[in-house]
Specification:
The complex is a heterodimer of chains A (361) and B (129). Chain A has 361 residues and is an alpha+beta fold. Chain A is built from 9 helices and 22 strands. Chain A has a 6-stranded mixed beta sheet with strand order 11-12-13-10-4-14. The radius of gyration of chain A is 20 Å and the shape is globular. The N and C termini of chain A lie far apart (43 Å). Chain B is α+β, with helices and mostly antiparallel strands and 129 residues long. Chain B is built from 3 helices and 9 strands, in the order βββαβββββαβα. The longest helix of chain B has 9 residues. Chain B is globular and about 35 Å long. Classes of the chains: A alpha+beta (361), B alpha+beta (129). Chains A and B meet through loops of A and strand 4 of B.
Chain lengths: 361, 129
């Protein structure tokens, strides 16, 4: 039994090829995922992300609960609307999920978690919440549309009312604001400017149509994947999972070690992992013909690693990948990937290749 | 439904074959196949002069989704390749039966054409997938 988002009919109208994505019937492309990719890098594209799970955390212990639940520290959030990216870890220091947390007040937060991990996330959150005075409320009554690209904000501006325009005026990156019936956030998964807009389900199709009429191109999961890969953003289930430390997933920056007495779940395991050393998630670039793929073996001077995500980069015109490899290999080094029974030289880079339409290599 | 021209022959591995009537055939991949593969990013073609038996893997179509072998639908020598695909692999997607052709083979045994599927036979073979 597959789920459909509230925008299913709009996808079919636009000629989408629908695929099963972890139990959701989602558009993989509307013809050409490469053209959709370029639309986002050069103009404005939109993604249906209504399958993602919104969870509101409210109550007098909301802040204390989240300071225990996730590795980053929500006490850093003091300006209403400010967002935080973090991992939610298990006791062994593995990543249960990665998520964005929006702060409204110390007693009110919004979490956006992955759809593929919805059930285990909710079970874990509810279990951990028992010791706190909080309510955990899933919000399935909303759809969500991500509008991304250099022209995304200007195109969205053409369909906002005066109240909404005032609400998003001058909004910095990684903020969210309730503007009338829309929750509009300056977040995304592409490395471009833009918004993620939470909209009541009954209004989602109208909003999608307004955006289409404003010249925003629909883009599918295929383009979403190459865009986030170029931007060096992790995909849960590929680049990290329950058995992978955030230290081995380029997520060290999301761990708030200070204050030392904040005993978040997984802290003890992370301290031990850090002392022992972990693998590293790096970028790989192959300018020769061919495409690096997830699962391929990487051979380094310090042992073997694996490509976690790999694809063709439409912006760069060659293949890029993220790989988890043993420590000791530096940016600029050459390692080898086993492809079609041959060993091919590839260059090690930081995990992150394109930002705001341009190469950052 | 995908377009399957009735004047072509097909291999069950999704190559199409057009008899040029001069002892050569032109080979490409079907519209159905390009749809399954998605946007093409590289096409690795054989060299002119290479000789293959029917069923040999002789080219690789690499799309955003996967790398797929392409098989020689008939035996023979490669007499021409579509060099345009080097810079424009997307032609395989946009015009699979025209500008997106892959290579031309000089037939070793014209009788092998009889072993290929006709449009109807190919359509039922993809319905079974």
């Amino acid at each position: 039994m597959t789920n459909r988002t509230v925008l299913f009919d709009k996808h079919v109208e636009s000629g989408a090829k629908m695929v099963d994505f972890h139990g959701w019937e989602m558009p993989i492309n509307y013809g050409s995922q490469i053209e959709e990719h370029h639309a986002v890098r050069q103009d404005a594209g939109m993604f249906d992300v209504s399958h993602m799970t919104i969870v509101d955390i409210d109550g007098s212990d909301a802040q204390a609960f989240l300071r225990k639940l996730v590795a980053n520290d929500v006490a850093k959030l003091t300006v209403p609307g400010k967002a935080l990216y973090t991992g939610m870890l298990n006791e062994e220091g593995g990543v249960i999920d990665d998520l964005i947390i929006y702060y409204f007040s110390p007693e009110s937060f919004r979490l956006v978690v992955n759809s593929a991990t919805r059930e285990k996330d909710l079970a874990w959150i509810n279990k951990q919440a028992q010791a706190f005075s909080v309510t955990v409320t899933e919000r399935p009554e909303f759809g969500m549309i991500a509008v991304q690209g250099p022209e995304a904000k200007s195109k969205v501006a053409t369909i906002l009312n005066a109240e909404q325009t005032a609400a998003v005026e001058g909004m910095k990156p990684f903020f969210g604001v309730q503007a009338g019936e829309l929750f509009i956030a300056t977040t995304g998964y592409t490395g471009e400017a833009g918004y993620e807009i939470v909209v009541p389900a009954v209004q989602a199709a109208d909003l999608w149509q307004q955006l289409l009429d404003a010249g925003v191109k629909p883009a599918g999961l295929g383009a979403r994947d190459t865009l986030r890969l170029e931007a060096g953003m992790n995909l849960y289930g590929l680049d990290m999972d329950d058995s992978i430390s955030p230290l081995a997933a380029n997520m060290a920056w999301t761990i708030a070690w200070e204050p030392e007495d904040r005993n978040f779940i997984g802290r003890e395991a992370l301290v031990a992992q850090k002392a022992a050393g972990t693998e590293k998630l790096v970028g790989l670039v192959m300018e020769a013909k061919g495409v690096l793929r997830s699962g391929l073996k990487v051979i380094t001077a310090n042992g073997e690693g694996v490509i976690t995500s790999g694809s063709f980069s439409p912006t760069l015109g060659y293949s890029v990948a993220m790989a988890r490899i043993p420590a000791g290999t530096a940016v600029g080094d050459t390692v080898q990937v086993e492809m079609r029974k041959k060993l091919v030289d590839v260059k090690v880079t930081k995990a992150g290749f394109v930002r705001n339409g341009k190469s950052i290599l | 439904m995908s377009n399957i021209p009735s004047d072509l022959k097909y291999a069950s591995s999704h190559e199409w074959v057009r008899n040029e009537g001069d002892g050569t055939v032109t080979v490409g991949i079907s519209e159905h196949a390009q749809g399954l593969l998605g946007d093409m990013v590289f096409v690795d073609l054989p060299d002119v002069g290479d000789v293959f038996a029917a069923g040999d893997d002789c080219a690789v179509a690499e799309s955003v989704k996967a790398a797929s072998d392409i098989y020689a639908p008939v035996a023979g020598e490669i007499v021409e390749i579509n060099e345009e695909l080097e810079d424009s692999p997307e032609k395989v997607n946009s015009d699979p039966y025209g500008d997106g052709w892959l290579f031309r083979i000089k037939l070793e045994d014209a009788g092998e054409l009889g072993d290929l599927l006709d449009a109807e036979g190919y359509e039922s073979s993809i319905d079974e997938d």
